[in-house]
Predict the structure.
Amino acid sequence: MPVFDLSTTPLRELNSALHGLSAGANDTAFEVINPRGSHAVAVGIDAPVTVDIKGSVGYYCAGMNDGGNVTVHGSAGPGVAENMMSGSVVIEGDASQYAGATGRGGLLVIKGNAASRCGISMKGIDIVVHGNIGHMSAFMGQSGHLVVLGDAGDALGDSLYEAKLFVRGSVKSLGADCIEKEMRPEHIEKLSELLDMAGVRDVKPQEFKRYGSARKLYNFNIDNADAY
Amino acid sequence: MCGIVGLFLKDKALEPELGALLSSMLITMTDRGPDSAGIAIYGSDNGKTAKITLQSATPEKDFAGLGEALKGALGVPVSIEVKTTHAVVTLDKDKLDEGRAAIASLRPNIRVMSSGDTIEIYKEIGLPKDVVSRFAVSGMSGTHGIGHTRMATESAVTTLGAHPFSTGSDQCLVHNGSLSNHNNLRRELVREGMTFETQNDSEVAAAYLTAEMAKGKDLGEALTGALDDLDGFFTFVVGTKSGFGVLRDPIACKPAVMAETDRYVAFGSEYRALVNLPGIETARIWEPEPATVYFWDHEKAA
């Protein structure tokens, strides 16, 4: 198993090794030690590798991930798993602002809390946060699911398109055009699948409320000017 | 983008290491702000003397003979320690205001970086590592300190435009962000009697807090007022003689990480800045909430 010690090895060596994997490579379990808050750790993965990062990371960890399974055994700085395409990213600690921003696919699990703008402009990614999320989360979210076991901050789902939001705790306030919606059987089913994938066993999907778009701000309509 | 670091010590045993710890934190933040760097260090209060930190563009000329000239003007001896472009004048506490006035008339080109019982401020253009080594910051001890690496957006890259800004006795502020109502607020503060050295937005924030505290507010109350009165993006870290405060605007785009142990409270724009602190592995680490005032005070804790 390749081990990269970022206190002695330049970050580029790790990322080059991840990018250089040929199809069918066997040695696909990477370990990263001493990340010490480094930026851009394990970005641009495009192969089904496993990366275990032992410590906390800075900006943009696992950005653009396409098929990798990255676990951060610590906390992550801003923009973790930004624009993920597929695969999974698990943060054992907390995540800073805009976790999972613009993600198109894959699963992001944050076992602690996520800060502001979690899932901003999400486009198909699934995000499960065990703790709370900050303000302006899922802003302009287009598709995918954001599941929050704790509470959500101000302006959840502002200017939301078709991303589906499930919050178990309180929501401090809803953003423009975001409303609470009925939990239908297909939502319960999807939510229980997501909870299962995220390793959440002791929480029932019925404990959540669903939030989605009121679809009034899709196109500009003068009658809705006050809502912007 | 700018970098901020701050360290407020609870454990006196760490005080001799304050300068070294802050220097290391500041150098880590070089890529957030390579234009200029500055540091404010709060030393120990001996109850008798106060300090004025001076800066000059022509230190050989301005600092030569200044001690003798001040002794002549004040009638008491003062001590001067010159560190390249800066000099720290130590004088009796009750001579502080008189001393500042004497300096202004004896050496009109000299700038006052800070004055008060314990504060010293050093700031210059250049890389953080060069700035801290020029002023031998690593060897300094103290109770708390704040540092800043600047990537200029709102005003010129000059020594005076570097942070920290000090607009009141033993007070200082560093800022990551940009204020949008600083011109209006500056006009109002000038009317209240505040004076300004630069066109910089952050100096206005510092002067605002100084003016509010002069009205009797403590640091926490002044910071709460700032949420209503300042418009723009900011993460502030603020120092007073015994206090250390942190405030982020309600949008909270500008990054901030804090760590607390039994020995210290630390602030960094990024977690990277904190990784060399003793006991960081077991510290409580969190991101300060938007629009929430955090402050610690040596006197209130005691």
Remarks:
- Chain B has a mean pLDDT of 95.
- The first helix of chain B runs from residue 18 to 28.
- The interface with chain A takes residues 250, 252-253, 255, 257, 270-275, 285-287, 289-290 of chain B (CB under 8 Å).
- Residues 3-45+124-301 of chain B form a domain with the Glutamine Phosphoribosylpyrophosphate, subunit 1, domain 1 fold (CATH 3.60.20.10).
